[in-house]
Amino acid sequence: MSDTEQALKTNATESARLDKTLAIAFVDISRARFQKLIADGRVRVDGKVVDDGGAKLKPGQLIEVTIPEAAPAEPQGEAIELDIVFEDKHLIVINKPAGLVVHPGAGNENGTLVNALIAHCGASLSGIGGVKRPGIVHRLDKDTSGLLVVAKNDKAHAGLSEQFASHGRDGRMEREYLAFVWGKPERRQGTIATGLDRSASNRQKMAVSNSAMAREAITHYETIEEFGKPTIVSLVRCNLETGRTHQIRVHMAHIGHPLLGDGTYGAGFSTSKVKLAEAARNSLNYLRGQALHAAVLGFDHPVTGKHLRFEAKLPKPLSQLLHDLKLQSAGT
Fold it and tell me: 18 with 50: CB under 8 angstroms?
């Protein structure tokens, strides 16, 4: 690998910080990354190494920075077809199919979205923390379909992570899901606010909890359509104010209306299938897992500042389920 030498003559105002000046000059590299490069002795001001990111600059000083070439990605890229909704040099938005794991892990060492992105993005990955890899800022469960944004560089990764950390409470981030749930929620719309933590009985599951380790989880929901007379299934719109693991699945089960196809949190409702007409039952059996789709994703572009909003229609298995539920409700 070869290092890249970059130099600029600052026209910064008196007392401008070194790390901030570099982050402004090189928009693809985050301030945090520059702070590490500075601490590693890779930045010189007027020929002298400066290892303090907070060092104050004067107008006209020459700044030289040595940027190591990003290390090869681990894992390796794989040619996996992607449904790309939007892409520029900073980020990429994917419509993920159900069944695709986002990140390699135990039991899923390859064939993941990360493998696919490494192959697809190639040289456009300038490196997250010095490694040529996509920056995952949020995830969707393996069997959840829909929209997911991934960063290509440090700057985008830091900006997106900050927006996700604010949970959309400042209006920049929007995450809307469509969920097919058993039964009819007592209130047509409402908010579920609980703590979530790992289940004490099964560490692979999440559970509503009041423990000191529990993390705040808030889901706003609205029933938008009901199927069956009386209601057997409801189509619910869920907006996330937080983004915890399995949040919608746990919250809807918590109020007594687990998602169709969710064997983890809705196993007790498996016999409810007999209430469905044959066509709807067959459509449900065809699903890979829970009937959940990330339909809307909105955020401010972390580099340009432009607000972006994307919508993804229900994938074919869920649209077929919706069609068959409508037929059942119509009595045909």
Answer: yes
Assign a CATH topology to domain 84-165: Pseudouridine synthase (3.30.2350)
Q: Note the helical H segments in 53-130.
A: 113-121
**Spatial distance between the Cα atoms of 198 and 206, rounded to a whole number of angstroms:** 4
Instruction: Give me the CATH code for the 4-67 domain, please.
Output: 3.10.290.10
Please, where in the chain does CATH 3.30.2350.10 lie? 84-165, 175-296+317-330
pLDDT tens figures, 257-294: 999 999 999 988 888 999 999 999 999 999 979 999 99
Q: What tokens appear for 35 in the block?
A: 């702070």
Cβ atoms of 180 and 124 within 8 Å: the answer is: no
Phi and psi at residue 141, to the nearest 5°: -55, 155
CATH 3.30.70.3040 fits 175-296+317-330, yes or no: no
CA dihedral 188, 240, 266, 253 (to 10 degrees): -50
The one-letter code for the residue type at 191 is T
- Among this protein's residues, is 141 annotated catalytic? yes
Q: What single letter denotes the amino acid at residue 48?
A: K
Query: Range(s) for CATH 3.10.290.10 in the chain?
Result: 4-67
Give yes or no for residue 14 having a pLDDT over 90: no
Q: How far is CA 87 from the centre of its chain?
A: 15
Q: Which residues pair with residue 235 across a beta bridge?
A: 180, 225
Helix (H, G, I), strand (E, B) or coil at 180: strand
Cα 285 off chain centre by: 27
Q: Tell me, what's the pLDDT at 45?
A: 87
pTM over 0.70: yes
74 secondary structure, DSSP code: S
For residues 173 and 217, what is the distance between their CA atoms, to the nearest angstrom? 16
Per annotation, catalytic residue among 141, 143, 262, 300? 141
Distance CA 74, CA 130 (A): 12
Provide the token pair at 219.
Answer: 């889901």
